[in-house]
Structure formats: C-alpha cells, structure tokens
Amino acid sequence: MSTVKEEKGTISIHTENIFPIIKKFLYSDHEIFLRELVSNAVDATMKLKRLSSLGEVTEELGDLTIDISINKEAKTLTIEDRGIGMTAEEIKKYINQIAFSGATEFVEKFKDAKDANEIIGKFGLGFYSSFMVAEKVEIETLSYQEGAAPAKWINDGSTEFEITSVDKKERGTKIILHINSESEEFLEEARINNILEKYCRFLPVPIRFGQKDERMEDGKDEEGNPKYKEVKVDNIINDTNPIWTVPPSELKDEDYKNFYRKLYPFSEEPLFWIHLNVDYPFNLTGVLYFPKIKNDIDVNRNKIQLYSRQVFITDEVKDIVPEFLMLLHGVIDSPDIPLNVSRSYLQSDSNVKKINNYITKKVAEKLSEIFKNERSEFEKKWNDISVFVKYGMLSEDKFYDRAKDFALLTNVDDKKFTFEEYKTAVEPEQTDKDKKIVFLYSTDAAKQNTYIETAKSKGYDVLKLDGVIDSHFINMLEQKLENVTLKRVDSDTVDKLIDKGTEKESKLSDEQKESLKSVVEKAIGNENYNVKVEPMDESEMPLVVTLPEFMRRMKDMAKTGGGMNFYGAMPDQFEVSVNANHAMAEKILNAGDENKQVGLAKQVFDLALLSQNMLEGESLTKFIQRSVDYLAK
After folding, report:
1. Distances (CA, A) of 379 to 253, 320, 516, 517
2. Cα angle at 597 between 596 and 599, to 5 degrees?
3. Which of 17, 106, 446, 543 is the 20 to 30 Å CA partner of 83?
C-alpha cells in the first residue's frame, strides 16, 4: 500500500465564502454540528452504494452502519462511517478549499443516474460546524479506490492544517472531535442521544450509538411462565425506512397510526391522513395527519416536521405549509426545498410556492373525497375539523373555493348542512322585506335559549356558531354568500331580526307609550340603555335587552384579536325594546304611584337582563329578594 506524503499548508478560503464560514455565526444552534457530520457520513455511505450499483465498486460493501462514540477521558467525540472515504488529494480539495462541495461535484458527475440526488450535502460547509464545539479536529480516512493510501488530516481551528499517514485498514472516514472546555455537554451520553434522536431518527443508513439494555425472554420457569434476562444490544438510533418512503399501497391504517404514535406519543388518534408522493414538477413525500383540534389553536401549531432526504431540518415550516395547514401534524420530506448553509431556515422561491399550493390542493381533495363518499363519517368528524376548515377558508380564497362545497353549517338541533343546502332550507321563511335571506345564529345555545325558542316558535331555524374563530367566519359568510345576511338571535326582537315589512297595531296610545318609556328609563337609570316602546306579538317577552348586531360583532372580533380593539374598549350601548302589546305594559302603567310603577318596571328589566346572563352581584341579589316579596304578596 502506498503512503501519504507528509505536508503542511494553509486552508484556501474563497473570498466570496468568507462570511458564511465564520464559525461562530455559521449555525444558530451549536448542536447542529452533529447533524451535519452524521449527514456527511450518510452522504459518503450513499455515494458508495450508488457507485456499487453502477458497477464502479466491486468489493463487498459489508456492514455500513455509522458509529458515534464518546471518550470522556480523552474528551473526544467520534463519528465513523464505512463509506466512500477520501484520498489525501480529496481532503485537500474538499476540506481545505472551503465551500467546494464534494456532493455537488458527485451529483453533477452522475446527474443522469437514478437517485443521484440522494446525497444530502450541498454546500461543503457542514464539516466546519465541528469547530463550534471542538478545539481540534482529526480526520482519518481510506478511500474505496484501489491502491489508495490512508490519510490523516489535523486542524486546530486556524487556517493551518497538517496531512500525514495513518494506520487505517477499513474503508471509510473517522472524524475525531477534541471537545473544547465550553462544550463539554457534548461528552454526555444523554445529550448526544437526544441530538441523534432529534435529527437522525429516520436517516437511510443505520446509526449506532453504543449499546443499550434490552429485556429478552429466557426460557420458562417451573410453572411454564416466561423468564426474562437483561442483555446488551446495539443502540440503533434510526428507522431507515420511515412510513413516508414506503408506497401507500403497501401500508395499512394501523401502520399510519403506529407512526403517528411514534411522532406524538401522548396525542389522541388522528382523524385521518394524507400520504403525499409527487416527483414532478418537484420532489415531495410525506404524511400529513388531521388531529383532533382543540379550541386553543396555538397549542396545535408547529407539529409538522420538515426533512430533507430523511434528515430532520426544522419544525417551523410556515414558508412551505400555508398558515392554516400549520394545524396539521406529520412529516414533509423534499430535496427541492431550498435551505441556507445551515439548513435551518427556509428561503422563499418558486418551488416553495408550488409545494405550498400542492399541499393545499391535496388537503382540499382529501376532505372533498371523504365528504362525497362517506358523508355520515365526515359529519361525525366535523366538530373536530371545523376550526381547521374555517381557518383555511378565512386564510385563502383558493381553499375557500374548494371547501365551500363540503364545509358544513350546524344548527342548534345539531343538524348539518352545506352552505347551499342551508340557504335553500331557510329561504322560504327567513327572507326579509329587502329580499335578503337571514341566517340567525347563536354563540351560546344554553344562555340564548329564550331567544332561540322565540325564533323557533316563528318557524325560524338557528345556526350554532360558537367556535373560537366563528366571529370572523360570520363576516366571511356575509361577504361570500350572495344575498345573505347573518344576525345573532339575541341581537334584536325576532320581528326586527327578520323584518317582513308588516306593521303591528299597538294596544297603547302614543301618550301611554311615552309614559311607559319614562317609567322604564327611571327604573334602569343608565344612559347606555336606549329605551323604545313598540308593538310586538303578545307572546313575546314584555321587555327585551339587546346589543345591536354591528356592535356585538365588533366586540366579538376584538376578543379574538380581530383588530377591533377600539370597539372592544367602548362601553356597551344596549337597545331596550318594551313590548307595548304585552299585558305587563298595562300592568306597569296601572300599578298606582310612580314608585310602584318603577319597582315593577325594574323587575321586568332585571328579568330581561337575567335572560341575557347580564344580571350579577348586588343587582342579582336584589332581584331575587324582590321576586320573593312579590310571590309572598
């Protein structure tokens, strides 16, 4: 075997690449160094396998497992592969000339061969991340090339390097990091294990980090029960064939569920999933799951993991995945997603936009397919996915256009309709004098039950819109649905909510109405309540307190961060509608002296507040006492 000529020299730094290689600023998180070095080891192994498949390597490949080891006494961390290896000349070319990528040259050479792009490294800078944690780095390597001499490269973080001979008989590369005093956390097994599990758990080449204890069956006891013993086994970090690399035709539902449990061990089972698999006009694989979404949207975000050729990159995928799809969980893997030198941040370009649009389209198609083929199942899952669908329709017009045919409206009786179905169902009864179809809705069916029942007695239907983003969804429906307006069921008297244009006769004269208005105003004693006496059905409440639809909607949006803080800070301005045709109106007027009139009006007013859940504290206590007194008479 030939030997390497000893030499010393200076690392060549291309001036245009000076900035990216400043080791303190190359990566935002120091733990990334291990991902980069293991990725390089995987690159070297995948290159070897590729060359073998092309017939350029004839020897047996043998065990290709990558080994990670720690020596606490020597303060070293070692990454060793059995891949393609390097010659001394290649070290000078690929290591000393920073930013000249061996992976780039290799891919160019074999660009017409299938799977040449499986090489992860692109920038030639990943290796230098090792100097963030190491005061000295050694490379011991032997190329696969016949007659190659093993070589050793030594560098202390400066531009000075040394190449010497080394006694290495196995093909591949060993990188030895002499960990500096500030980075001794990376000599702890638990720390290294966590990093490997975070970034390398799905790499395509086995990664071994020492050994671990495992419980194995060891025969039977006298009663025939199994006995167990603890044995040492290799600690293989990764699953080399994760679910997204397997054709969907070879997978069962249980495979998808098991993978979800692996990703999110403490989560409920997903509702359903989409297996992404596209190779034109970009490469993308992955599995996206629809979780059961809780009302707290933020808790469900950032659960999609981004990989590049099975290397974990980040779980912040907002540039690739549309905002509303951040509520999904799962994995996306694409070599076509551009990354900066640290692979830590996504850069916007045309491919990212195409992928973004593709994922939106696939999600809409999946939902539409379930709705058309299994509507009853879709309706059962609607409560869990409605936030996600509504959020998408609010966020993107394209998604709205796809979703409007399967998005559902639910009424207070829990019956579900598409937008068009509901519009058709209520149009005959709920069209007002201006030919507008009025959708009545409730935000809290229990608290608004009185108003709901009054509406139902008129033959009207009431929707249930009580979700976390429904205040915004209501506005969107009015903008999108032609000739439709929405009104909260307790925002006015029912005859005004759906004004048919018919006038009711009043049992009170104008003078009596003015007198009754004056009494009610004294009973209320608050200028934020605007009192009107008007004729209504005798069956309706004697007095109704409402917050006008516009004001109520602005305040609801302010609560959910809709940019309506001005309205949120304004004092409530209520409308008080006194029913001139209710028997209580005459009873108040005929109560005797003014004190009795005001007392009775106060009782009726508090009853209206109670129906709106607006009576509390001292006012509620006084109302209860007055009620007891009236009953005792």
Report:
1. 21, 30, 50, 49
2. 60
3. 17
Asked if residue 565 has pLDDT above 60, the reply is: no
CA distances to 6, 91, 166 from 151, in Å: 9, 9, 6
Distance CA 476, CA 467 (A): 14
pLDDT single digits (tens) 400-422: 999 999 999 999 999 999 999 99
| Measured distance CA(67)–CA(80) in Å, rounded | 5
Side-chain-facing half-sphere of 627: CA atoms under 13 Å = 11
Neighbours of 1 (CB within 10 A): 9
The DSSP-derived string for 188-217 is -HHHHHHHHHHHSTT-SS-EEEEEEEEEEE
396: left (phi over 0), alpha (psi -120 to 50) or beta: beta
> If you ran DSSP here, which 8-state letter would residue 310 be given?
T
- pLDDT per residue as tens digits for the range 307-318: 888 888 888 777
- For residue 485, list its beta bridge partners: 438
Count of C-beta atoms within a 10 Å radius of residue 219: 8
Secondary structure (3-state) at 427:
coil
Task: Give Cα 337 distance to the centre of its chain.
Answer: 19
> Which residues make beta-bridge pairs with 336?
none
Domains and CATH numbers, the chain: 7-210 (3.30.565.10), 243-377 (3.30.230.80), 407-497 (3.40.50.11260), 510-632 (1.20.120.790)
Q: CA 286 to CA 153: how far, in whole Å? A: 39
Bridge partners of 578, per DSSP, are 533, 543
For tokens 């080994």, what's the residue?
67
Question: Of all helices (H) and strands (E), which one includes residue 619?
Answer: helix 617-632
Amino acid at 574: F
CB–CB of 175/139 below 8 Å? yes
